[in-house]
Write a structure and sequence with these properties.
This is UspA domain-containing protein. Pfam families: Usp (PF00582). It comes from Rubus argutus (Southern blackberry). This protein is of the alpha/beta class. It contains six helices and seven strands. The chain has a five-stranded parallel β-sheet with strand order 5-2-1-6-7, with helices on both faces. It has a two-stranded antiparallel ribbon with strand order 3-4. The chain starts with a strand and ends with a helix. The model has no long low-confidence stretch (mean pLDDT about 80).
């Protein structure tokens, strides 16, 4: 079985990763005796992080109506910062997997997270997608959009949306 867990910098996505590891990987190879292992019995997890592409927008400059493109150095700096952030996020995710003795692979992609995640589930033939939920209400979700809601309706596989624990949702 092939599971994909989407993570970003939010605590909710890491909670979803921990939840998935605790509930899906009960019989991971590290917890089953070697004599009891059979090929194909275990879940494989891919942790995916999607970065938004940097758009070289025009920035208005004063009241004269002039505008400028971001310089090449600014674009390179932003891309480098995004790469470093992705590396930190995936390193944290891999450490959680290691602590729970589950082997995982990581994947960094660029684009609109909801579209890229759904495309990746189809291309990688994922059996289950796990995403976290920020716990937005109906009105906020309608205005802000929701990656988890979009994935639930458009992914090519079953989707588990892991809500934050009750005490976290109540403190908002």
């Amino acid at each position: 079985m092939n599971a994909m867990v989407a993570v970003d910098e939010s605590d909710w996505s890491f909670y979803a990763l921990s939840w998935a590891l605790d509930h899906l990987f009960i019989n991971s190879p590290s917890t089953v005796e070697a004599s009891e292992r059979q090929e194909g019995d275990f879940w494989k997890v891919t942790v995916v992080h999607v970065t938004e592409p940097f758009h070289n927008f025009l920035y208005p400059a004063g009241t004269s109506g002039g505008a400028y493109y971001a310089t090449t150095s600014v674009v390179e700096s932003v891309k480098k910062a995004q790469e470093e952030t992705a590396a930190v996020i995936l390193s944290r995710a891999l450490q959680i997997c290691k602590d729970k003795m589950v082997q995982a692979e990581t994947l960094t992609m660029t684009g609109d997270p909801k579209d890229v995640i759904c495309q990746a589930t189809e291309q990688m033939h994922v059996d289950l997608l796990v995403v976290g939920s920020r716990g937005l209400g109906m009105v906020k979700r309608a205005f802000l959009g929701s990656v988890s809601d979009y994935c639930a309706h458009h992914a090519a596989c079953p989707v588990v949306i892991v809500k934050p624990p009750r005490e976290s949702a109540a403190t908002k």
